[in-house]
């Protein structure tokens, strides 16, 4: 069986990425390992009093994202593709690569929005980072029209 790590960020392109990963998994007899890496600063806000932490905001956000992740897993399983999921907080690139190693992944499937290099300079590109750092193949699915 081919192990496929599929990082999900719940963006507008998640459905398209999911479709591509399911098609790939069906073609190669793969299992999808969904992962969502949440930022570590979910419950923090800045205001007149400086930085403040609101644990209830973080708890609610994490609960909602876990529900969404479970729903995506069920959609994949409904397409006759084996799947499991994980959610962690931290630095996305590091966690995704650690998870891929842990699951003996054969591929990491990522989306590419086709943004300019200037966008990457200011915002960064997780897909670009993983294609540079990963020791396993990264399959990039274009997300633009």
Q: Detail the poorly predicted runs.
A: 118-124
Shape summary: globular
- Structural class of the helix and strand makeup? alpha/beta
**Secondary structure: helix percent:** 40-55%
Strand order of the largest sheet: 5-2-1-6-7
* SSE series: EHEEEHEHEHHE
Please write the CATH class name: Alpha Beta
**How many helices?**
5
Q: Provide the CATH topology.
A: Rossmann fold
Pfam family, one: Usp
Protein name: Universal stress protein
Family: Belongs to the universal stress protein A family.
Keywords: Cytoplasm
Describe the structure.
The chain is an alpha/beta fold. It has a single domain (2-142), classed as HUPs (Rossmann fold), CATH 3.40.50.620. Helix content is 44%, strand content 28%. It has helices at residues 14-28, 55-78, 92-102, 117-122, 126-133; strands at 2-7, 30-38, 44-47, 50-53, 83-89, 107-112, 138-142. A 5-stranded parallel beta sheet has the order 5-2-1-6-7, with helices on both faces. It has a two-stranded antiparallel sheet with strand order 3-4. Strand 3 and strand 4 form a beta hairpin.
């Amino acid at each position: 069986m081919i192990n496929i790590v599929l990082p999900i960020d719940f963006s507008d392109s998640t459905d398209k990425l999911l479709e591509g990963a399911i098609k790939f998994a069906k073609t190669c007899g793969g299992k999808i390992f969904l992962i969502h890496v949440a930022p570590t600063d979910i419950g923090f806000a800045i205001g007149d009093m400086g930085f403040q932490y609101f644990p209830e905001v973080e708890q609610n956000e994490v609960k909602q994202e876990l529900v969404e992740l479970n729903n995506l897993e069920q959609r994949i399983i409904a397409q006759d593709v084996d799947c499991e999921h994980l959610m962690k907080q931290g630095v996305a690139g590091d966690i995704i690569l650690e998870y891929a190693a842990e699951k003996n992944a054969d591929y990491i499937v990522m989306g590419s929005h086709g943004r300019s290099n200037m966008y990457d300079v200011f915002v960064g590109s997780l897909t670009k980072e993983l294609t540079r750092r990963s020791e396993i193949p990264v399959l990039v699915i274009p997300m633009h029209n």
